[in-house]
Structure formats: C-alpha cells, structure tokens
Amino acid sequence: MISLHIDRMSYNNTFKLEKIDLDIKKNEITLLLGHNGAGKTTIIKSLFGLVEFKGNLKLNNRVISLKKSQDLDLFKRETSYISDELSLFDYLTPSEYFSLMKNTVTEKVDDKFLNLLIELFELEVYLDNPISTLSHGNKKKTQIVSQLLKQPNYIIFDEPTNGLDPDMIIVLKKVLQIIKKMNIGILLSTHNLSFGEELYDQIMVLRDGKIKLNASKEQVKVQYSNHTLEEIYTKVNKDYYTHIEGILHELNQAND
Ligand SMILES: Nc1ncnc2c1ncn2[C@@H]1O[C@H](COP(=O)(O)OP(=O)(O)OP(=O)(O)O)[C@@H](O)[C@H]1O
C-alpha cells in the first residue's frame, strides 16, 4: 500500500493543502476528484517528491524518503506514472519506444501482454511511424501502453480520458478493471465522473486543498444510497452548488 500523509504543504502561502490522507491499495482504484486548482496534481507531485511538504510517505507501511536514492529507486520500480503531459520521445516510433521502456524495467516484460495492449488500443498500424506524426489520442495511447507494459505494483494516472475517443475510453475502463485484479493499486485523478463512477473502490474529493470526502465505495453507498457520482459530488460540494444555483437563477431571469 502507498500512504501519503500531508500535514501541510503550500506554494508561497498562495495555495495550501492541509490534512490529506491518501491510500492507494493493491487490487483497488482510488479516485481523486476536485475542481480546477483543487490540488490534485500537487498531491501527485507530493507522491513523487516533486514538492516539499510536512508529512510522510509510506510504501508497504514503511516510511520512505524520496530524497534518498535507494528509496527513490524502489518507489520508481514499484510505480508507473501516466501523466497528462505527453512527454514522449517524438523521434522514436511506438515500437522503438516500447522497446526502450522494456529495457528500463528489471522484470521481464510479458510480450503477449504488450501485444494484447497494442491490439486493444489499436496501435498496430502506427507502430513504425514516428511518434511526432501521431494524433494526440494515439500519442496518449502510446504513453498508456508504455507504462502499463511494466506491470508495476502501483499506477498513478492523471486525466486518463483526456484526448481519448469514446471507444478507447470504454476499452481503457475495461483494461483498468482487469489490471486492478492483477494485484495492482491504481490512483485515478479525473474530471470524468462517469468514467470514475464504475471504477472506484475508494474516493477522495478535494475542494481548495481540503478533503470534502474520503471514503470507500461501501461507505459512500451507506451514506448516499443509490445516488449517482454526479449527485454525490454535488452534495459533497453543497455550498458551491448553492452559490451556482443563485447565479443560474439570475442568468435565467436576465434572459426573460
Ligand atoms: N509551482 C507552483 N507555484 C505556485 N502555485 C502553484 C504551482 N503549481 C500549482 N500552483 C497552484 O496550486 C493550486 C493547485 O494546483 P493543482 O495543479 O494541484 O490543481 P489541480 O487540482 O491539479 O487542477 P486541474 O484540475 O486544473 O489540473 C492552483 O491554485 C495552482 O495555481
């Protein structure tokens, strides 16, 4: 299990995260939801030691320090990060890129697993084209496959559905359901409520750097019975939506 505890973190006092407790458990998907600027990426950056914070990071119940090269190497080996920024080597082809990724992991990559992912994400026809010539969605799929092929213990996935077409969103949802059962823990940070709804086992909702909801799916069911995730999200952020309803009412009146 990965456990991140942030007591406090701030960017020059302009934005702060407080009392964040995030767990990523094997065989589970943790969903991270929040408005633009809520702090989701900052939490992910904290996980990778890219921002300073007061608190601690545990891997399998042991506190680790990403400033120590040994701990950093261990954490990198255990974790794949699929970012929303497409930082691929554009001059390589997907095929060359996958080979490069295969050579960077210690365990042997299962070629059958890789070929099935290539087929599922419909990348066969682009395998020998330079990545620079691929569409945004195909670059994204190349990035997804390049990280999944490592079959890490944990996957941190930022905005998984950005740039994907409806077929691929459906395929990705099914792939993540299978991958989770391979004893892999997944953190999904997404704005796509319907995508997250079917997938999550744990949910964290953030507003302005603070936790509004941190619960398991079972706890959510007890508290919100059959409500959809959109309804739950709206209820959790009640103050915001009451404010928005007021403005929408005025907009409607102005239109009369
Ligand atoms: N390097 C930085 N220096 C100062 N402030 C920053 C920095 N990076 C982010 N912020 C601010 O911290 C807040 C949280 O940003 P963050 O990127 O974590 O939000 P987010 O929830 O990922 O948003 P989005 O959904 O828009 O990606 C924002 O107000 C942002 O402007």
Automatic annotation (TrEMBL):
The keyword Transport applies. The keyword Glycosyltransferase does not apply. Residues 1-233 form the ABC transporter domain. Keywords: ATP-binding, Nucleotide-binding, Transport. One of its GO terms (molecular function) is ATP hydrolysis activity. InterPro entries: AAA+_ATPase, ABC_transporter-like_ATP-bd, ABC_Transporter_VariousFunc, P-loop_NTPase. It holds the Pfam family ABC_tran. SMART domains: AAA. This is ABC-2 type transport system ATP-binding protein. It comes from Pseudogracilibacillus auburnensis. The lineage of its organism: Bacteria, Bacillati, Bacillota, Bacilli, Bacillales.
